[in-house]
3'-5' exonuclease DinG (Alkalihalobacterium chitinilyticum), 937 residues
Amino acid sequence: MKETRFVVVDIETTGHSAQQDRIIQIGAVLVQDGEIIERFTSFVNPQMKIPPFIESLTGISDEMVALAPTFEQVIPELLQMLEGSYFVAHNVQFDLSFLQAQLDEVGYLPFQGPILDTVELSRLLLPNEESYKLQQLAESFNFQHDRPHQADSDAEVTALLLLKMIHKLEGLPLITLQKLKEITTRLKSDFDILLDPLISNKLTSFNEEDEQNFDIYRQIAIRKKKLEVSVEEEVLIAQPQLKSFVEDIFTNLGEMKKIFPNYTVRTGQLEMIEAVSDAYENRSHLLVEAGTGTGKSLGYLIPSVFYAKTFGRRVVVSTHTILLQQQLLDRDIPALKKMLPFTFKVALLKGRSHYLCLRKFEQKLQSHLDDNYDTLLSKGQILIWLTETTTGDVEELNLPSGGRSFWLEIQSEPNSCSGPQCPWFSRCFYQHAKKMAQKADVIITNHALLFTDVAQNHSIIPSYSQAVIDEAHHFEDVASNHLGVSTDFHQMAFLFNRLANSKESIFSLYEKCGQVPTIEKKALEMKIETCKFEIDELFRMLHSYVLKMKKSSTEVGRLSYRYCAPNEQGSLWQSILECGLRVHTFLKELNEQLQQYVQKLNDNIDDLSWENRGTITDFQGVTNDFEEMKQNIEQLLLEYDPNAVYWIEIEEKGAKNATYLFKKQVQLKETLADEFFTKKDSVILTSATLSVKESFSYFIERLGLEDFGPKSLMIPSPFDYSSQSKLYIPTDTFSINEEPDLFVSDTAEKIIRLAHVTKGRMLILFTSFKMLKETYQIIKDRMEEDEFYLIGQGINSGSRTKLIKTFKQSDQAILFGTSSFWEGIDIPGEDLSCLVIVRLPFSPPDDPVLQARSEHMKLEGKNPFMNLALPQAIIRFKQGVGRLIRSESDRGVIVVMDQRVTLTRYGKMFLQSIADVPVLKMNTNELLTDLKEWYRS
C-alpha cells in the first residue's frame, strides 16, 4: 500500500443540489505511506448568498468568503494534488458530484480516478459501531474534531479514519481479504486497488504468526476462542460468610471508592442483600420495589453469587431489556468481580435467533443469486465481525436496513439445526452459549427466553431453582406475548419465499443424485400455488370483515377488532371459516408432500456432502415451519378457548391482505403459578415500580402468587426529591375529551414557553403517536428557525438509543417520545431538566386484552378500573417520572398537562405514588415565574 496515494476531500456547500448550489470551502489531505504528508484548504467565493441554515451549520458566513478566490482560481492546486490518487470522502457521491459539476462549469474534464467512500468502508470494517456519521466516529476513536462541518477539520478526521481502517485491513487474515474481494467488486467504492496489494503481500510473505489469533476453517476465518480455565486452575480463596463480607466491604469506604469513585453507603442496598439472601435460604418468593439510586443490581447479584457458590446451584437473572443485560455485563459484573474474594462464572444466554448459524452463512457466502447492495454489505460486515466476535450475537452488529432480511436467512434456528452432524457444531455460537450457561454460576437472560423455555418444557435454559426477575413489572405482559399465538400475511409470505429458494436446491439435489421424487415437481408447485391463493383470499376476507365491523370507527392507524369465532355472524364470516378450513387442509397436504421429499433424501444422507446435508436440513426446517403455520391457523380460527382473547388488526389504508391475527390468555396467574413459581424454590421479583398505594397486592394477584405467601420489601430512593425536583400542574389547560384540538395546540404553546426557560433539555411523554406528531408539527411551525432541536420518536429516523444519544449531544433539544420512552432511558445530569407528561398513561380502552381482562373482573365482582386500568396507569406514571432524577446531583421539574390528576377522585393516587415530590398547582404565567426562580436558586 506504500505506492498508493489517497487524497481525502471534504467540501462545504450552500445546499444539497450540485446543479444549483455552490462550493464555499474545500479541505484536502494527502495520505501516503501510512501518514498524512500534505494538506490543502481554502474558502471559495460562491458568488451567491450563503443560506442562514448553512451558516448556522458550518459557521461560514458571507463575510468569510467575500474576499476568497473563486472555484476556478482554487481548482488547479487541488487537481494537481489529485493526480494519480484515490478520491476519498465521507459520503463520496456528495463531494464528488459537486466537484464534477463545477469542473464542468469552468471547462475542466471530470475526475476519472478511483474513488473510496469512508462511509461505506467504515460500515464494512467497523460493523459494530452505533453510527457512521463522521462526528460520532470521531468521538468513538477519540479523534480531535473541533470544527465539525468545516472542510479542513472534516477532511483531517476523515484522513485519520481512513488510516485506522487501512491498518485494520492490514491485520485481517488472508482468507478474509480474499472473500472480501469477491464481495466488494460490486460495492460503490473501488476496493480492488485497495485489497490487491494487501492480498499480494500476504501471498508472497505469508507469516503464520500474523494469523495465530484466527481459527481458519472451511475457508472462513473466525476469532480463536480462548482456552477455558479448568476448575483446578481457578484461584480458590476461602469463601467468607455473606454477612461478614457485607460488613467488611460496605464499611470500607476506601476500598469501595476504588471500585465506585462516587460511592456512598446505601442502607437500602444492604437491606435488599439481606432480604434476597433470606429468601434463598428459606426457599421463598420475594417482591422488592427498589427506588431509583438504590443500587438494586448489586443488591440481588451479591447474594445470588454467594448462594450459587456456597450451594453449587446456579441462579438465573432475567431482564426485560437488552440495555439492562448489557449494563449488568459491562458495569455490575466487572465491579462485583473486583469486590469478591473468590471467582465466579457468568454467562449470557439469549434466544436462538440472536446467534449466527455458521453453516447457513457459509452456504450464503458461496451463493450470489439475487444479492442486492445491502446483502453484499452485510456479508462483508459479517466476514469482518467473525474475526472479532466471541458470541456471534446479532446485537453486536449494525446491519444496513436490508441486512435484517438477510439475517433471517442466516440466524440459528431449532428447525434447521442438524446438531452434532453439522461440520460447524464444535464452533457453533449458540451451542457455545449453552455450554457456557451449563458451567455458569449466574446465567443472565431475558423474560422472553424464560417463557420460551416454559413453553418448550424447560429444555432451553439449564435447570435452575433460584431466579431474579428484574424489570418485573413487565413479567405478565411478556408471558402473555410468549405463551400466546399470532400470525400474519407477511409472515406467511416470507415462509413461502423461503420455500421457493429451498425447494429449487432440493430439486437440484434430486437431479445430482439421479433420484426421482415421490411427488412430481409439477404437483408440488400446484399445491404451493393453491395454498398461496387460499391464504391470500383468507387474509383479504379478514381485512374486509374488520372494515365491515369497524365502519364507524374513529381509530387512526391500525384498526383492531376483537372476535369470538363461535359467535361471529354473517355470510362473510362463514366464508372466512370455510377458507380457513381449506387453508388448514391444504397446509396439511403440502406438509405431507414436503416431508416425503425430505424422507427420500434422508434415506441416502450418508452418501451426501456436508453442503447437501445442509440443504436438506434447511428444507426440513421450512417444512417444520409450515407445520407450525398450520397449527396457528387451527388455534386462531378453527378452535376456541374461553380463557383466551382473540383479535384481528389491519392496516386500514394498507394492502388488502395486510392482516394480523392474535390470541392471548386472559388470565395467566394459574399458568404462572403452575408452570413457573411452583417449580422454583425462590423467585426474586424486583423493579422501581411494583407497588400501588404502597401495596404489592396488585402484582401478587396478577402473577398468581397469593398461595405462595411471598415476602415483600419496599426500599425508597436515596435521592432527596423534595429539594431536587418539583411537579407543576398548570390550571389553565383545556380538556382533552371536550376540546381535543385546543388541548393539543395549547400544550404545544406551553411546551415552547417552558423550553425558553429550560433552554430545551426537555423530554415530552405522550400516550399516542398521533398526538405526538401533531404537537411536534405545531411546535416546529411556531418556533423560530432552528431555535430548538426537535427530536421525535417515529419522526426522526433511528432507534430509541440513537435518538437519546442525539438528544444528549445536542444543545437546546426537545425529545418527543411515546410507549418505550416512558421507561428504561437514563439521561442523568443537565442534559434533561424538564419532563412533560401530556396525558396520564392509561391503556387505550379498546385494547382487546384489557377489554377481556376487564370483563373477567366484572364476572368476579371486581371493579376493572380500580383493580386493573388504574394500577397499570399508576405504575407507568411512576416509570415516566423516574426518567427525571437519575443521580444525587440531578435537578429537574415535571409538568403534568392532564388536569384529571387534580379534578378526579383517582387523580390523587398518581400524586401519592410520588409522595416526596413537591406539587404546585398554578396558571402558566405563575408557573414560568416560579420555574425561573427555582432554576436560579
Observations:
- Residues 571-602 form the longest helix (32 residues).
- The mean pLDDT is 90.
